[in-house]
């Protein structure tokens, strides 16, 4: 039985999060009192116009940036109470990231890129575990290639394998399909969806693309730094209709 998104415990909870940047005319608010939970074992998409604060929201939720006020709870940990060293450990050990531009290390092979988070976490990477992660994203036989010898879609699949092999509590993806064509983007979304459905991962993704958002269990809409709406299990058409107002 699938547990409805509404009653799942949040993997991460934002409570009254506000974020301002200093500008020449004083503090410029980017997030305004955002309270939002990302349900465990589900995929949440964050959408909104350019400049509405999506990446800032993701960065505050992931401990890459600090809110000006409010709390970010990852499980029982209040990230706003953590110092930089604690945040570094939390990002390394408990959070996964997938970026638009893949962010692989160019001098390392696909295998070495996937093994890296385990090495950094001082867990000896087992060859079978790394190979299985590569197999799950359809890259068996390509483990010795460097990123430049792989297509964009294949590079993103390496990045997803690298993220999932560390078994993070939550995965944040910023425009994971933004640099990919439609068909390749669909494959990448299929892999993220599988990570949720088969492995029970929690994924939070920023996207501009209604087709990518339609893979999510829930889509939240941000305008001028505020949550203005949510859709559960929407189709791409419903998302597009919502976005165009
Ligand atoms: N480090 C920073 N210093 C100052 N202003 C910033 C900083 N980062 C973001 N901003 C401002 O905050 C606002 C929101 O930016 P953010 O990148 O979160 O928006 P976004 O919704 O992700 O946009 P896009 O869809 O274009 O990527 C923008 O006006 C941006 O200029």
TrEMBL record:
Keyword ATP-binding recorded: yes
Gene3D superfamilies: P-loop containing nucleotide triphosphate hydrolases
A GO molecular-function descriptor: ATP binding
Keywords assigned by UniProt, alphabetized: ATP-binding, Nucleotide-binding, Transport
PROSITE patterns registered for this protein in UniProt: ABC_TRANSPORTER_1, ABC_TRANSPORTER_2
Residues of the ABC transporter domain: 12-243
Keyword Zinc in record: no
PANTHER family the record matches: ABC TRANSPORTER RELATED, IMPORT ATP-BINDING PROTEIN
Name under which the protein is recorded: ABC transporter ATP-binding protein
